[in-house]
Amino acid sequence: MKFQGSLQKMSTELNNPVDYFLTLGDQEIHMNDLINKDISITYLNEIHCIRCGRKTTKSFHQGYCFPCFRTAPETDDCILRPEMCRAHEGISRDMEWSKNHCLNDHIVYLAISSGLKVGVTRIAQVPTRWIDQGASFAIKIAQVPNRYTAGILEVNLKKHFADKTNWRNMLINKIDLETNLSEQKSKAKDLVKKEFVKFFIDDNEIVEINYPVIEYPDKVNSVNLDKEQSLEAKLLGIKGQYLIFHDGRVLNIRKHGGYEIELEY
């Protein structure tokens, strides 16, 4: 079967294992069904902005044309650095967008994707954010009223916890199984400034996430469709937003947002 369309971030459902869905054109593909099958992905030398649809020669910020990259609220500085959000002050590229994405409850969490890390997401994005990062375990630590406050709390915690994932270790499933997230949450509460303690929540559920992977590779090699336009290999699994192939190559779907491809299996 053949499918053609512009790549978008795969949608997910938290099951055991996670279910992944890729939309190409008007077709939704249940990617779990393709695991352990030979598939081919061919880049068709076109990129379309995932926001406005404009054809562009280069993708910015994982799928945007340059004008959208400069003006869209989805690419503002606070997306990567929540502490820079100014929507609570009435300052935003698009206040209507910010009402739904910045001026609502956010969760500050601890997760283990490779090692322990702290992160921030909108409450509506739990557990999607954890899945997209390839987290194996996660726990909510605090609930705050807006993105800015979440960012300031995260900055406070980054003095004591990492905020990055080693994506290579995540994809070979080299993860920290010794760390107790409940203990780390208690530690975080003791370490933050007193003004943040009121935001910590009692929910101590540790969410465990299992991914549809037959076998993890010993090492990985990331595919760049600008350099390797055709990929043909057996799909061994999916983790985060990566397709994992039998030869150790991995394709970051989100990184190639807007790339026009043909998928065949």
Put the structure in a nutshell:
With 265 residues, the chain is α+β, with helices and mostly antiparallel strands.
How would you characterize the overall build of this protein?
By secondary structure, the chain is of the alpha+beta class. It folds into two domains: 2-52 and 213-264, no CATH class; 105-208, no CATH class. Helices cover 20% and strands 31% of the residues. It has eight helices and 15 strands. The chain has helices at residues 66-71, 77-80, 95-101, 128-132, 147-157, 167-171, 181-191, 194-197; strands spanning 2-6, 11-13, 19-24, 27-30, 38-48, 55-56, 106-112, 116-122, 137-144, 207-208, 221-222, 230-239, 242-245, 249-252, 259-264. Strands 1, 5, 6, 11, 12, 13, 14 and 15 form an eight-stranded mixed sheet that branches. Strands 8-7-9-10 form a four-stranded antiparallel sheet. The chain has a three-stranded antiparallel sheet with strand order 2-3-4, with no helix packed on it. It is globular and about 55 Å long. The mean pLDDT is 97.
Layout: helices, strands, pairs:
Blueprint: E1 2-6, E2 11-13, E3 19-24, E4 27-30, E5 38-48, E6 55-56, H1 66-71, H2 77-80, H3 95-101, E7 106-112, E8 116-122, H4 128-132, E9 137-144, H5 147-157, H6 167-171, H7 181-191, H8 194-197, E10 207-208, E11 221-222, E12 230-239, E13 242-245, E14 249-252, E15 259-264
Parallel strand pairs: 11-14
Antiparallel strand pairs: 1-15, 2-3, 3-4, 5-6, 5-12, 5-15, 7-8, 7-9, 9-10, 12-13, 13-14
